């Protein structure tokens, strides 16, 4: 029973365009959401987060949007760069745990 | 700071053998987490420790899996006996503060293959 779902296993975009990665969750008790980025042969690294009391958080090229009524969050990367090519994991915090999605592989082509 | 250190990076073993994965958290961090990554289920939390004490092991798949944290700088995840379905990448992560901090720092992972 996946409480955090990333329904797109992969996404391809061109350099300079916007990348939009989506994440859905089922548990309304989650109070904090995070995005992690993972390169091959490395562990995930923290990218950006958002509290459930907000609907938007921005950090440079990265913006996370939260729609609590739809139980949906998204990560926008603008402009996308080839170095952004990685697997992106969405995570939700609840009950003293982080629950991760299955990841979306982003490929940014020059 | 060396970050979270895991060993070995790769492990290939035969079904039925005992496997021990090791983790050294970031110095000063008091929470440690073990995760398993698979294609089907993504990153799953297996167990986490706070101040060397296991807080939640509900993610441990079955009795074949066990984890220990004898001190603040070392933890092990043991699988005995191992099975082919245990093949996955196992990550250790640590964080500072009490309980579950917002940011966890991950090690590079151990890729386990059970033949």
Question: What features would you describe in this structure?
Answer:
The complex is a heterodimer of chains A (110) and B (115). Chain A has 110 residues and is mostly beta strands. In chain A, 0% of the residues lie in helices and 57% in strands. Chain A is built from no helices and eleven strands. The model of chain A has no long low-confidence stretch (mean pLDDT 94). Chain B is globular. With 115 residues, chain B is mainly beta. Chain B has no helices and eleven strands. Chain B is 0% helix and 54% strand. In chain B, the strands form two sheets. In chain B, strands 2, 4, 5, 6, 9, 10 and 11 form a seven-stranded mixed sheet that branches. A four-stranded antiparallel sheet of chain B has the order 1-3-8-7, with no helix packed on it.
Name some characteristics of this structure.
heterodimer, A: 110 residues, mainly beta, six-stranded mixed beta sheet, five-stranded antiparallel beta sheet, 0% helix, globular, B: 115 residues, four-stranded antiparallel beta sheet
Overall pLDDT of chain A: 94
| Outline type of chain B | globular
Residues in helix, % of chain A: under 10%
* Largest sheet properties of chain B: 7 strands, mixed
Strand segment count of chain B: 11
Largest sheet of chain A: 6 strands, mixed
């Amino acid at each position: 029973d996946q409480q955090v779902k990333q329904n797109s296993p992969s996404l391809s975009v061109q350099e300079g365009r916007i990348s939009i990665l989506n994440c859905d969750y089922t548990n309304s008790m989650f109070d904090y959401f995070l995005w992690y980025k993972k390169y091959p042969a490395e562990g995930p690294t923290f990218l950006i987060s958002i509290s459930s009391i907000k609907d938007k958080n921005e950090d440079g090229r990265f913006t996370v949007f939260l729609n609590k009524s739809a139980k949906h969050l998204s990560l926008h990367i603008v402009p996308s760069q080839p170095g952004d090519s990685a697997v992106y994991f969405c995570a939700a915090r609840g009950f003293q745990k982080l629950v991760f999605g299955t990841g979306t592989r982003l490929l940014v082509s020059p | 700071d060396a970050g979270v250190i895991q060993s070995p990076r790769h492990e290939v073993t035969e079904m039925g053998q005992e496997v021990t994965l090791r983790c050294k958290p970031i110095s000063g961090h008091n929470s440690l987490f073990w995760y398993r990554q698979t294609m089907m289920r993504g990153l799953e939390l297996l167990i986490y420790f706070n101040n060397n004490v296991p807080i939640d092991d509900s993610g441990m798949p079955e009795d074949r899996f066990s984890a220990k944290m004898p001190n603040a700088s070392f933890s092990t995840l043991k699988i005995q006996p191992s099975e082919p379905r245990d093949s996955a990448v196992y990550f250790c992560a640590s964080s500072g503060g009490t309980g579950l901090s917002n940011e966890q720092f991950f090690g590079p992972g151990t890729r386990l293959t059970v033949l």
